[in-house]
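User: Please predict structures.

Assistant: First:
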Amino acid sequence: MNEKRRIDNTYERYLEIPLYMIALFVVMTVCLFFVKIFAGVIAAVATAIYTVISVLSFVRYRASTRARFVEFAMEHGKMQKELLREFPMPYALLDKSGKIVWVNDEFARITETSKRKLMKLTAMQVFEDITPEMIPDDGTVINGNIVYGERDYKVEIKSVVLGASRMPESSADSGDNGQRDEEELRSYEESDYLAMYLFDMTDINRLTRENQEQKLVAGLIYLDNYDEIFDGLEEVRHSLLIALVDRKINKYMANVDAIVKSLEKDKYMFVMPQKYLPQLRESKFALLDEVKAINIGNDLPLTLSISLGTDYNTFIENFEAARSAMELALGRGGDQAVIKSADRITYYGGKSQGTEKSTRVKARVKTLAFKELLETKEKVIIMAHKNPDMDAFGAAIGVYRMVTSMDKKAHIVINEVSSAISPIYSNFTANGIYGDDMFINNDQALEMINADTMLVIVDVNNPVITECEELISYAKSVVVFDHHRQTKDVVANATLSYIEPFASSTCEMIAEMLQYMDEKIKLRPSEADAMYAGILIDTDNFLTKTGVRTFEAAAYLRRSGADVMRVRKMFRSDIETYRQRADGVRCAEMVLGSFAISVFEPKEGSESPIVLTAKVANELLNIAGVRASFVIVQMGRNVRISARAIDDVNVQIIMEKMGGGGHANVAAAECENTTADAVKAELIRVLEEMYKEGDI
């Protein structure tokens, strides 16, 4: 009523304006009489005529014009209300509790419910996807997505304040429903409302989904052991094997609408729509096993690696991601598929142990590249992983010898000398030949490093677990030597990277490089002992992961002065440590009939828990029927797992699920802020899940 009274007063003032103008004309007429009588007479006549016309118009048209004005306003209001009621977008008013107060025709149509029934329900009762949390109570705008009647809707709910004159009313032809609407709204005069809009996103989502599915995924396929297979196969069967491999690859890729192109004799590139990617994931890239099953007289199974790049902005970025993923697949030993997307890396396969490379070409090339880099630097800092083992220490000693042979200064970063290296560590600290600055800590290394310093990382390719991760960011030139399979965390922008997952140990790799470095290099007995011990520990006395090149490296070290008996005496255990190893074996239990899991607590003052768990894990492999062993030990607030395998089980992928990594048959993981029992339960769950899915 107040709004109506205000409009009436405005209309009255508008009609009275001509009457106010009469006074102006009278004043003007009086002034003209003073100027000239004739002009004043004319003005008086005109003023009289204007006055008569204005008064008669005001009296005669006031009622009719007002009626027309009110009628127009009413028609305009009805039109607005009609448009709102028939608006094609579903719209509703809710109260603060979510109860429906008013809906338009489209809202009633999509819900297939009468307005009268809807106004007895809440929005949460009509739409299951709308929750009480989506009802705003502080004036904010809530957006969400719901599905109703096989249609996708975007929901927007926001607070509004409505007065009685602004409430939507039904038109006269709406009948009882219109009266009901008006009665419902009258009880909510001057109250806070919630306006709910529904935007139909079905077609937009469908087109978006189709566009996403039609994006191209770039992929690469490399045959891992092409040369090794063909070297041992009769020449007349070469073309047959190539034809079978091509047929397997093309048939498999045809099922996912992919185009395959051969780049080289052992390399393929393919592109495929992204919508088939879930199909490949679900089958876990069955092509890996299909190609491995090909046998036409070849002694070794043929394996391949697959890489894909997806979810990047451009196809070029997808292809670059595929290339990066392929390097990762090969660095992890091959026989697996790697999918690299914008936010994650996923691995499939990788169950085989890989094939040892008989050629040393790669070692020679990497050695020459390392030698050229050394010539440009004045100083070298060598670093391994935290709590270095004998392989890390021996490899560091080998690199130290290579660097010093070129008259360059070298330092090895070691912060803590564990029992794993202490028997041989004293051979260098007690020897005046090496100097007091041979071994340095993190702080000293950070002070020494500059633009003329090279950083060499051995026995690790994950920067997080190096002795000093901060050192990597300061180094201008970084070199990585390692035999572990790569994970998603790698040393970025390494100047030279030599990662050989087929090698038994990093000491084996460095021993080969020493032979190509310089013919005049002669290892000292203590240096040969350190490297020989590294190979010995990592191969469990030449029982695991041992190839032809392993024995050749050991023979080179033996010729350089390594003493087998001296090394063996250094790493013998005392009686108490041996008893603890026996306790670790005694505590073991079998899971799924072929996995041995042991949880034990080493006594204080005994051998390093890391070394002890590794020895227990190796001992468990001597039990008949054990395919893999896992030893869990509590170390303060953290728990460490040592994993070993003797069969076709890849313990690396198991430890990766536990947050660790390593090698195909030697791996480990460390879990923070937990207990040994909790880690054991999680490990059993992972084993059961992988066993059920056929991954182990």
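Second:
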Amino acid sequence: MIAINQLTVDFGGFKLFENISYNIDAKDRIGLAGKNGAGKSTMLKIIAGLQQPTSGTVSIPKGYKIGYLPQHMLHNDTRTVFEEAEQAMVEIKELQARVDEMNAELAQRTDYESDSYMNFLSELTEKTERLSMMGGDNYKAEIEVTLKGLGFERSDFDRKTSEFSGGWRMRIELAKILLARPDIFLLDEPTNHLDIESIQWLEDFLKSYSGAVVVVSHDRVFLDNVTNRTIEIVLGKIYDYKANYSKYLILRQERFEQQMSAYKNQQKMIEDTEKFIERFRYKATKSVQVQSRIKQLEKIERIEVDDFDTSALHIKFPPAPHSGVISVKGKHVTKAFGDHVVLKDVEFEVPRGEKVAFVGRNGEGKTTMARMIMHEIPFDGEIVLGHGIKIGYFAQNQADLLFPDDTVFDTIDRVAVGDIRTKIRDLLGAFMFSGEDVDKKVAVLSGGEKTRLAMVRLLLEPVNLLVLDEPTNHLDIRSKELLKKAIKEFDGTAIIVSHDREFLDGLVSRVYEFRNQKMKEHIGGIYDFLNDRKLENLRELEQRKAPQKTASAAPQNIEAKSADDNKNGKLTYEQQKELSRRKNKAEKAVKETEQLIEKLEAEIAEMEEKMSADSSEAMKLLSRYDAAKRELDDAMAKWEKQSEELSKL
């Protein structure tokens, strides 16, 4: 358990935290909530020991292992992907060597009744259990499973990390933390550079993990799926909710309403007291009562309203100029970078007024297609914009096009027209520019701040086709909701490259999946697509059995049909039989391994009970206990591989 005691952080007279106390228990799944600047990332750094508080303490048990993933990091690019991931296993190698050394020593000792022997036995048991929990000799298989889960192909393992983008290198760092099996994960925006499949894999990993998790994320679905406790940081204080993010929002609203009611009552009491003091201040007969009321006011602990309601803030895109029926169309589009083909002979069509999503694993061509639609990069084939189309484009490099000498306010004032000019400060506030921030020069803004400012500016431009590449990466949940509402009400066309399921849910009606050099169209929303993909993943590709002919169908007809099915990408009758046979065999293997795991777990539990009850029995059972733990590790690794093979079938 980690105990945070009376934590205070003071930045030049401004208290980010003030006397905060709470505990993190062994299996907690905590989401840190609060507006940008509330101190969520600072809290993670303090727990990780990377930043010292002004006062207060963080109590961490001896030997407690912390895995911390920051938003931004420096990378070591001298190793391959696999070698870099293997750095997380240094402790396993050292631990294995120590366990082997201690087992050899144990075989030589005969002082069974001594305190020294019992302490030695306790240390060996602890280290053996730790080694078992961390994967033991199976760590290479575990590295492979983890890297593949985060989107790497086996062919990537021997590539230098310098060949990958910052987002992919962040995945390597995440893999190292996951492989190190810390007692607690501290994850700061872990989903920003992951695609949907990798986010779902990470969710499954964290949900089944035996340690604690504290996460900062603007991905609402990720928080709901992973966390069961929410700690909100507001005005230097915290509120602790035993609930995931969506339930926390309901509880927070209830707290806000109670707080507002108490605030109004207190303000009424203060107003009445001040009127009494003012009325009778100079009357000698009332001097005692007046002094009493003055002291009463001085002692009152003023109620602060923690949050404020921006629901009335309503921002819309300007009306879309009239355009043709088709916004953009692609024919025979092919794009390669050197020998690496990203897209091959792709065709697509986006009708006017549609809101569509580009999804798929990183590196499959989503951003490349967005840039080709903008004609920023060369390609083969044809991409045609519809009549009268005017594009509003948002990408990371858009932030670099802002004027560095302009202030934040001036940047928006340049493009704002009409009534919206009276709400510029409200709009900037919704996108986390408040107070003196609006007077900052663009040149001194961080990359994330520039990105958000570019998004605000885009909200004000009259266009009829929006092309948005990962627009939510630097937005908090409230800002994302504002943007989502504005896009839904936009009467033009929108193409959105995103991995944010909650943002896309209810927003898009068509999904283009980028996979295997193609764009596959899915009609429906993002969860319709995900359900379809889940079915496909279970069978590798969803295959429908061909309608069987009558029993008298001639062999040559089957062969003819097989040829046609192969042309259409379907399985032949013989292939279906072979697939069914392999699937049954794989299911049987998984079941047998699961039964073995259950047997070993029961045997280990029984031995642990006996060992804890009788120290002399512990000595007799230790050798079998270690062997059973190793067998269980092997069985678990075997089960993972078998399950992966089954899911492919």
